[in-house]
Write a structure and sequence with these properties.
Length: 204
Amino acid sequence: MTAQIDHIVFDIGKVLIHYDPNLPFSRIIPDAAERQWFFENVCTHDWNIEQDRGRTWADAEALLIAQYADRADHIRAFRQTWREMVPHAYEGSVAIMLSLIEAGRDVTMLTNFAADTFKEAQEMYPFLTVPRGVTVSGEGGLIKPDVAIYETHVKSFGLEPARTIFIDDSMPNVEGAKKAGWQAVHFAGAEKLKADLESYGVTV
């Protein structure tokens, strides 16, 4: 028997808002093979996630420019064009989140996000200010799927792990939540989310 759900926690990128670095870089580096090489070797996922852990963009850029001086403009463009990477919200999942809040449900957010770009995201998408609160990895120096970030969120917001359900598009992050004693579901669209929540007794 699944425990009653009292707390609902949303991831943000690719759950509530779209994220794709290719959007500006298809213009900056038009050649698809070259662009793929750039993301696999220069501005990689592993490099970017350290900003989510709290590293400054200045330090991140300096690190790469020291190795790829001829790519300095492209490296700096990653931060400069960030707003283009998050062009729209996922209206279906945003509607679910807001309806849960309107129904009196306790809703918070837990996200891997650089501290400065998260503030920009809140300016672009005011619905990110509506939940009770948020744990931003770049502000605390912890990232998903480290169990410690889930434990930090529990302490910050007074959650009971077994009565908490987490929604994330990344399966490793879903598994991280489960290791922390949470319920968790993998996000793959609003309709599936609605069905997943209802399977846990959360009516949308």
